[in-house]
Specification:
Shape: elongated
CATH topology of the largest domain: Heat Shock Protein 90
Radius of gyration: 38 Å
Strand content: 5-15%
Order of helices and strands: HHHHHEHEEHEEHEEE
Number of strands: 8
Structural class: alpha+beta
Distance between the termini: 98 Å
CATH class of the largest domain: Alpha Beta
CATH superfamily of the largest domain: Histidine kinase-like ATPase, C-terminal domain
Strand order of the largest sheet: 6-7-5-4-2-8
Largest sheet: 6 strands, mixed
Helix content: 55-70%
Number of helices: 8
Length: 404
């Protein structure tokens, strides 16, 4: 019968031999840290078998086990050790093969191809790593596509702006030289030249202001001073500023909003975005046409719809309407009073900075731009009915006019 003393002897003896084997195995693993996983698994199996054999031998000497019994025990342990070695080697080879497959998939990315996960079944850890690599590659690919699009947009912007800047500068130089040389000396012409110089200077200032605003948006440096304001008030201000241009073009300008649509926005920036959309609609609407600005609540968000009578945009141009410098025409000669074609790009940047969305579609006999903005926190469901929004005054034409 095994006594408590025998159990204690077995316990500290086996513990001592196991600790010695573990220390030796740890040292070997550190020396072989740069080797394959298969090697490490083989070392682990060897440590297990060595600790078991050492414990059996020591116990047999302490407890005077017969040689016959010792031989049986050692045979059993040896067979179990061989099985353990075999399993460790097979597992190590499987992990090594899976690692090589994963490495090959990663190298394909480095050679210009996209990341494709190995078709073979991977261990859970490597499968998780492969999924993470696939996600990371998708994000990098998207970022690379965005970078290419921005670079293309930047090049187009430089081409458009360089042309649009040269045109007014050439006119300014010609008029200044005519005045300086006395070629023009009659007062009506001189007065007209002065007015034209002022108009061209204002246009250059507008383009520079647009470029500065767009650079802040692209750099993520747009600072917003938010406050709660009624969306109807923002629409009313935009209509007020755009009303002189609509009157000059004989375009009817109408607006209405559901009352009680508070939004938490930077009033100056969002007002600029709405003005850009309204002025853009007016510029492309023929005389006697109508521009409607309607505000409502849709899917828990405030929505503003700016509809014009421009005749629509070709379907292939719709995805590019908000691109920098895009005007939907091949001629780059600017219309008098237009900017550099940055208005819609600025509007999109401002709306997206407020966690909103802006989109465009063809509707009826023209285009419909839709702006969606989050409602102010705690905003109640607006009452039914509509509130007609009209221009509050008729100030000088807005300097913030934008166009596509």
């Amino acid at each position: 019968m095994i006594t408590a003393g025998d159990l204690w002897t077995v316990s500290y003896t086996v513990a001592g031999t196991a600790a010695a084997a573990a220390i030796a195995g740890t040292a070997v693993l550190r020396l072989l840290a740069a080797r394959s996983v298969a090697t490490s698994l083989t070392v682990v199996a060897a440590v297990t078998v060595a600790a078991t054999l050492a414990g059996v031998v020591v116990i047999s000497m302490e407890m005077f086990i017969s040689r016959k019994d010792l031989a049986v025990v050692l045979t059993v342990v040896a067979i179990a050790g061989i099985a353990g070695f075999a399993v460790a080697l097979l597992l190590g080879r499987r992990v090594s093969a899976a690692s090589r497959l994963l490495l090959g998939a990663v190298q394909q990315v480095g050679q210009g191809g996209g990341y494709r996960p190995p078709a073979a079944t991977l261990p859970a850890e490597l499968a998780g790593l492969s999924a993470g690599l696939q996600t990371a590659h998708g994000l990098l690919a998207s970022a690379r596509d965005r970078e290419r699009a921005l670079e293309l947009s930047r090049r187009e912007l430089v081409a458009w702006v360089s042309h649009d800047l040269r045109t007014p500068l050439a006119g300014l130089r010609a008029m200044a030289e005519a005045l300086e040389d006395g070629v023009v000396n009659d007062w009506p012409t001189v007065s007209r030249y002065h007015a034209q110089i002022r108009a061209e200077a204002d246009r250059l200032a507008l383009m520079i202001d647009d470029l500065f605003e767009l650079s802040r948006i692209h750099a993520g440096a747009l600072r917003l001073s938010r406050q709660v304001v009624g969306l109807g008030d923002l629409i009313s201000d935009a209509l007020t500023s755009a009303e002189p241009l609509a009157r000059a073009k004989s375009v009817r300008l109408r607006g209405s909003a559901v009352p009680g649509l508070p939004v938490w926005v930077d009033t100056a920036e969002v007002g600029r975005a709405l003005l850009n959309l309204v002025v853009n609609a007016i510029r492309y609407t023929p005389a006697d046409g109508t521009v409607d600005v309607l505000a409502d609540m849709e899917a828990g968000m405030a929505a503003v719809r700016v509809s014009d009578s421009c005749g629509g945009i070709p379907a292939e141009h719709l995805p590019r309407v908000f691109d920098v410098g895009f005007r939907g025409k091949t001629a780059r000669t600017p219309v008098t009073g237009e900017g550099a074609g940055l208005g819609l790009s600025i509007a999109r940047g401002i709306i997206e900075a407020h966690q909103g969305q802006v989109a465009v579609r063809n509707a009826g006999g023209g285009c419909e731009f839709v702006v969606r903005l989050p409602l102010a926190s705690g905003a109640a469901t607006p009452p039914t009915g509509r509130l007609e929004v009209v221009a509050r005054a008729a100030p000088a034409p807005a300097a913030g006019a934008r166009q596509r």
